[in-house]
Inverse folding.
């Protein structure tokens, strides 16, 4: 009866074998010899004694099975707690949300049976569209996993950051028309103030039914992920400019001091670029501050596409940007400045019936070529190079600071 009821509730044969058949078989195996021995010992006794022995045998067998199930449940709970602890520690050890999604995905894909992939979805602080970080057991399954998860999230009308209405995992979705992906479980990432910051989703292989363990683990890890995402959000607010998405000045100053110390100790080279947006005030006066904001965002976009992933770009203040280029000679830094100036010119945009043609002036200074004594001196050298550009009136011109006379 128990086996049939388990099967009708959608549990797999593996689960039924472990929860029902195996403990029953082991119980019979353990107590059958004892039952035979007692029956032989009391075969000439009163039938009531044999009946009492039979009841005792059945009772002991039932207790054994219950102890087995309890032991299995405690072992499963211990494994879940260990997994939640490991994932929480891994997520909390980084403020890079992409690395956070990778670590959470790796842990869940390897630990939860039947998992095709995991998706961490978050809303960036700068107001852009949601970010989705996908981890799949098979790289080829990533598009199917993301597509299945996005269809489920599309049913959440206010998921992009409104007050959370869901505090427990969403009910499993109906099977989706995917080759490798079946049901999707998803749980919101809720900040301490009740605001929803995103979702953690698990896509199961086609034919896999979610268990209570899937729901418990997803809910527990989602709470851990929500804390990590909130830490990332607060860190982003402290280090990123809200308008452009670049780093703030304070962050670059810290990195510049670190890079100066490293380069001085190792004898390596690096460059500092100062970028000034031309005619921002004119654009604000003619087309409004909204157009000026668009101009700054376009320059920031051109800057991002012109530098490497290891480079550090920031909004220095107002219409000025700065870029730290580690492990780069002055000549190479000059080439980056030229590429940046050309990329800015290509970011033409329309405001009403008018066209805005952006341009930016760039000054370049290098360590040790420009001979700076300290980070502030390096900045002053780059600033003088930028002033030379602005004074010449040649917009977009890049000037590299000459080596200082010894």
């Amino acid at each position: 009866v128990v086996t049939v009821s388990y099967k009708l509730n959608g549990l797999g044969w593996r689960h039924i074998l472990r929860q029902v058949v195996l403990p029953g078989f082991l119980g019979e195996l353990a107590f059958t010899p004892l039952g035979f021995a007692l029956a032989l010992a009391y075969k000439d006794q009163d039938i009531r004694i044999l009946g009492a022995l039979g009841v005792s045998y059945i009772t002991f067998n039932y207790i054994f099975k219950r102890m087995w199930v309890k032991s299995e449940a405690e072992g499963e709970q211990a494994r879940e707690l260990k997994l939640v602890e490991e994932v929480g520690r891994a997520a909390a050890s980084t403020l890079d949300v992409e690395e956070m999604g990778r670590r959470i995905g790796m842990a869940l894909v390897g630990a939860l049976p039947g998992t095709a992939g995991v998706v961490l979805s978050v809303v960036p602080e700068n107001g852009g569209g949601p970010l989705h970080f996908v981890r799949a057991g098979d790289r080829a399954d990533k598009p199917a996993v993301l597509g299945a998860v996005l269809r489920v999230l599309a049913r959440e009308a206010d998921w992009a950051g409104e007050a959370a209405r869901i505090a427990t995992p969403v009910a499993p979705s109906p099977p989706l028309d995917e080759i490798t992906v079946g049901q999707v479980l998803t749980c919101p990432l809720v900040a301490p103030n009740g605001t929803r910051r995103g979702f953690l989703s698990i896509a199961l292989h086609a034919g896999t039914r979610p268990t209570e363990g899937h729901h418990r683990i997803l809910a527990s890890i989602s709470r851990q992920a929500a804390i990590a995402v909130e830490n990332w959000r607060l860190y982003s607010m402290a280090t990123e400019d809200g308008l452009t998405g670049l780093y703030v000045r304070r962050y670059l100053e810290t990195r510049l001091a670190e890079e100066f110390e490293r380069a001085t100790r190792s004898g390596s080279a690096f460059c500092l670029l100062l970028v000034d947006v031309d005619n921002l005030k004119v654009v604000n006066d003619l087309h409004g501050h909204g157009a000026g904001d668009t101009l700054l965002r376009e320059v920031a976009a051109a800057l991002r596409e012109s530098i490497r992933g290891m480079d550090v770009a920031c909004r220095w203040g107002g219409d000025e940007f700065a870029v730290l280029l580690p492990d780069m000679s002055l000549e190479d830094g000059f080439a980056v400045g030229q590429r940046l100036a050309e990329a800015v010119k290509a970011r033409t945009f329309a405001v009403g019936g008018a066209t805005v043609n952006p341009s930016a002036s760039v000054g370049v200074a290098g360590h040790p070529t420009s001979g700076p004594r300290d980070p502030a001196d390096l900045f002053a050298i780059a600033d003088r190079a930028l002033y030379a550009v602005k004074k010449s009136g040649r917009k977009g011109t890049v000037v590299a600071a000459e080596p200082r006379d010894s």
Q: What stands out?
A: Confidence is low (pLDDT under 50) at residues 160-178. The chain has eleven helices and twelve strands. The first strand starts at residue 115 and ends at 122.
